[in-house]
Structure formats: structure tokens, C-alpha cells
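A student in our group prepared the protein record below, which I am reviewing. Here is the record exactly as it was handed to me.
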Amino acid sequence: MSALYLELSRSRAHLGYPQTARHVKAAITAALAAEGIDEPCAVDVLLTDNETIRALNREYRGVDRATDVLSFPMNTLTPGEFDAALCERDYTRGCLLLGDMVVSMERCAAQAAELGHSFAREVRYLAVHSTLHLLGYDHEDEGPQKRQMRAREKAILKNFNL
């Protein structure tokens, strides 16, 4: 397992549960390991609220509604075929820069309640989902790309006993 440089911040104080950072880091680390990535990587994570994620979704995707997670990849990668040579690097820390993720804590809690599982399970799912986006996976259509991404999510999450 390689090092993960996780920069986690909150758009306002006290967003998320006390163990949110631990869950996010565990999920990102699991996704990277499952994809066979053995180089140190950096991911920036912003925990936010519905208002902020809605503004970001509107600005960057042209969708005027809150969403659960947004992913901003630094690189153009092929799903399942990770190539470190295609990644931006932070030479000071000696790691690959994968990108940024933004997670709405309000949506995360609401979805956990709607789906009948824990906040921990939902935030880990969102972090795995976003990490796969940072690694080139997508699900814009109902075809093979979406099935491939869902299969990877399921396989990675199976390792967590939540």
C-alpha cells in the first residue's frame, strides 16, 4: 500500500461526524489499492453543505442542484489501466496529484437515512465513487462504462464490514 496525502478541509466548522476524515481516507486508500496503484498519491477533499455543492455543480457542470459528490480529476486516465506517467506530480512531496473531491455532508446523511445504512457506509461509498472518477471511470451512460464503475465500487466496498 502506498502513502496517501489527504488534504481534508471543511467549508464551515463542524461539518461531518467526528470519524469522517478516517472513513474518507480508508475509502480512498482502498480504492487506490484495488486499482493496483502503488505510488504515493495526493487527493484534496472538501466537506461541505448543500448550498456550496450546488453552487459548484452549477458553476462547473451547469447543473443547478445539490449533489452528493463532485470529482475534479487532474489527469486524463483510462479506467482500469492506470498509468502514472500520465499524472501530474508534486515533486516536493514525491507523489502523484489525482485531483479534488467535494462531498456534501447534508446529502450524505440524507442518503444514508434513505437507503437504511450508516453514515460511515455512505461517506465511504462517496469517497470510493469519487476516487474512481479521479482515476478515469465514468457513468454518464447506462452502458458498459456505468456497469464497469459500479462493479469496481461494489468490489472495493465489499472489503469494509459496514
About this structure: The mean pLDDT is 94. The CA atoms of residues 58 and 64 lie 5 Å apart. The two ends are 22 Å apart (CA to CA).
